[in-house]
Amino acid sequence: MACSSCSTGKDGQPRGCKNNGTCGSDGCNKLTVFDWLSNMSLPNGQKPFDCVEVRFKNSRKEFFRNTENLTLSIGDVVATQAKSGHDVGVVTLTGELVRIQMKRKKVSPDDKTIPKIYRKASQRDIDIWQKCRDREEEIKKRSREIAISLKLQMKLSDVEFQGDGSKATFYYTAEDRVDFRQLIKDMAKAFGIRIEMRQIGYRQEAQRLGGIGSCGRELCCSTWLTDFRSVSTASARYQQLALNPQKLAGQCGKLKCCLNYELDMYLDALKNFPPSDCKIKTQKGLAFCQKTDIFKETLWFSYKDEPATWHALSKDQVLEILELNKKNENIQSLEEYAADNVDEEKTIFENVVGQDSLTRFDRPKKKKRRKKKRRKPKPKA
């Protein structure tokens, strides 16, 4: 998605809004809901929904009540109610879709504690807001230096100013409980503002900061994923992935959320498979299951005395053999069944693209013999 400012410049280069997904029109903002009801008029006699969704820094969104009946649209900068003073945010959603979003996030529309919108932000409000946003990086760097000098085992990941500049919220991550009372005193003295400390998890930190995942795409948690479900190593075991922490962990240091995306499909497919710890009794000896391929519906077994030699059996063959074992009937050997699964056909790929071979430089170059030109005899005088 892109906003109207993300068009192409005169020289053909991408211009961009240079706001990193926080532009005024909100078209390139992460976690934005498309308002497909914007061009539809309300039925006669029905009043528009009096709550709107407002976005603040990064992906933090809250619901506010439009008590002043202001004409608001997506992208409007508004001054909203805060615990003390006022905050400034951007309207991201209006109308009936806000009611659906509130139901989805379990917020009652009849709740009287929902804060309200004061007014549309004036130019003075926007100027103060922008000055505070410009100070955030400097204050974040200084606050980290103060925390290091106090030897606190915590990581300050982000700073968010209130719209009127009277308060700053510091987001941090820590393994254990941290006594930051002296830190608050030092920061309040250094910056001259009220300080609020808010602890977040490592996944919430990655959501706020964003980044590029190992798949080459932007992180799911910072683009569209809103709820964090628990991910366990069992998800990797069901999908027969190697339990390598470096490959299974994301930027947050936890297991990747995408391990749960295809887990339901694997669980449904494994219902028709024999258990992974099944044993086959043969006249040659006892055989154990070593590997299962869900897509090819193939299982590999090896004898107890020959663990390095694997025999490939289809799913139906294994189920048939297990039924015979239940009747106290043992097959002669696994080789009889595995011989039927040998596929001697080899797939030959043709070079239809016209690409050069990777080993073309390994071949010795043939020396070209230059043909000697015969000189024409000079005419006799």
Largest sheet: 5 strands, antiparallel
Class from secondary-structure proportions: alpha+beta
Shape: extended
Radius of gyration, in angstroms, nearest whole number: 33 Å
Helix amount: 10-25%
Count of alpha and pi helical runs: 9
Extended strand count: 12
Tally the structural domains: 4
Strand content: 15-25%
Report mean pLDDT, rounded to a whole number: 83
* Element pattern in H and E: EEEEHEHEEHEHHHHEEEEHH
Strand order of the largest sheet: 2-1-4-3-5
For the termini, the CA-CA separation is: 87 Å
Low-confidence stretches: none
Quick tags:
381 residues; GMP Synthetase, Chain A, domain 3; alpha+beta; 4-stranded antiparallel sheet; 5-stranded antiparallel sheet
Please tell me about this protein's structure.
The chain has 381 residues and is an alpha+beta fold. The chain has four domains: 21-118, no CATH class; 127-200, GMP Synthetase, Chain A, domain 3; 207-269, no CATH class; 279-340, no CATH class. It is 24% helix and 18% strand. The chain is built from nine helices and twelve strands. The chain has helices at residues 96-104, 123-149, 181-191, 202-209, 233-238, 245-248, 263-270, 315-326, 334-338; strands at 51-55, 61-65, 77-81, 86-93, 117-120, 155-161, 167-173, 194-199, 279-281, 286-293, 298-303, 311-314. The strands form three sheets. It has a five-stranded antiparallel sheet. A four-stranded antiparallel sheet has the order 9-10-11-12. It is extended, with a radius of gyration of 33 Å. The mean pLDDT is 83.
